[in-house]
Design brief:
Blueprint lengths: L6 E5 L2 H10 L3 E4 L4 E5 L2 E5 L4 H15 L3 E10 L9 E13 L6 E4 L9 E6 L7 H7 L5 E3 L2 H10 L3 E10 L6 H23 L8 H7 L6 H5 L2
Parallel strand pairs: 1-4, 1-5, 5-10, 6-8, 8-9
Antiparallel strand pairs: 2-3, 3-4, 5-9, 6-7, 6-10
Helix pairs in contact: 1-5, 2-4
Amino acid sequence: METDIVTAIVMATMLEAKPFVLGMSLRQTRKIPFRLFQNDGILLIISGIGKANAAMATAYSCLKFKPACICNLGAAGATHTGYDLGEICHIQKIVEPDRPNLKTGKPCVHKPDLLAGFNTTILATSDRAVLDPKERKAISINADLVDMEGASVVQACRTFKKNCYLFKFVSDTPDHTRDQDIVNHIRLYRKKFYDFFTDSVRPVLPVPSAFSREKHAGVEASPTSKSLK
């Protein structure tokens, strides 16, 4: 178990993560079971696309590295025309339109943690890509953006009692129905997203105190233990 990680970042693809790896000088430390990049208290894990991959990667991060918090970052599609390409949003609620609650029959709902001072919105997480404008319109009743990982990251974080923050940037709108459109827009806006994270989000993420870090790592806080560091 490694305990020097303060923030774990879960991203679905290297396509989205490339500016983070380069900008924070992260070094690859593992390829299996997930690609891991680390440096200066930051862990970036490439989960792969989809709910199951995101849940496994988040659980792996929690169990092996014990981060103080987890950030799920990446691209999302807009469900209606109210969002611009490249626009960045802090997620306040997530619904799963393809996973009804067994008691109510309504979509499962998850609520991540929030940081003050950011524009917030509601995200839907689906097990498959949503490109068709009619499907987007149906989802827009409950959510403004749609991705394929967010709900699973939050659910895993709740299981392991970790703070979880989600930020998404708009990679496609109802006017974009081709996979290549999404790829092109991610390449176009990913550096802006990285700059936003490093300039605006990372400085306000909660950092554990010296005492909580030692307790977190299983070390009793005392003058002796501190003097040995």
